[in-house]
Design goal:
By secondary structure, the protein is mostly helical. It has a domain of 193 residues: Farnesyl Diphosphate Synthase (Orthogonal Bundle), CATH 1.10.600. Helix content is 71%, strand content 1%.
Amino acid sequence: MDFEPYIVRVNQYLRTCLPSQGSLTEAMHYSVLSGGKRFRSILTYAVANSFQTDLNLADSSACAVELIHAYSLIHDDLPAMDDDDMRHNQPTCHKRFGEAHAILTGDGLQTLAFSVLANDNNLSTQVRIALLQALTHAAFEMAEGQSIDLSVVSKAVDVDVLKNMHEKKTGALISCCVKLGVLICACDANDSQILGRFAKDIGLAYQIQDDVLDVLAPENVLGKKQNSDADKDKPTYPALIGMDKAKKTYQQLYERASAQIGQLSVNAYELHQLTQRLQSRQF
């Protein structure tokens, strides 16, 4: 299935939301519009569309999750965090604009994400409040996950610690993408629970897969330095349980996620296709 229409849609909406003037404009556009898979926004659109919801109601949520994601990458790349120089095959924000400007750019994108949701007059006040609650929860979980990530460098940890870190740092926003779609389409409690379990599985699978690809994928495909986790002495699934078991673990999680959405009361074709696309990704 071709998800390009969703990518075009969210990119157009992002361009309307990003500032057109001001000292942070260039860095914001550089960081948000320079590439990326956009699978988080695709996930929100796919959930909404599965329940035949007007996609105009999903635009602000799709945009908000991409803004939060971009902010998190800018801050994660900083020398005080992961200290990465490349992202999407181009210099990271702090390498291009300086550390202080990168911090402010990330701050600006985070606050812009909440503003986009709060000011979407296509949605009821009740729905907007629920969306903001979900996004704020995810943003806090991401910060906690990054804190755990920094605290375990060069330390021996077990898989439970690593799983908790991944579920917060990466999984929280992925789960939020699904949650926002659920809130927009107002599906019933059973479908909501199924989608919650689906989101949790693909969130963890995605990060374990990232751990694997960090070792196996070439730099020109990854868009950043290969073996960056190992170079920083970070605990990863391949390091803890071995490459073969790590691969098997994320494959099983994707398969379980796909089986779960088969139980929805609606046709989840797009979500099945997206899960398969993620499962086979190379970067």
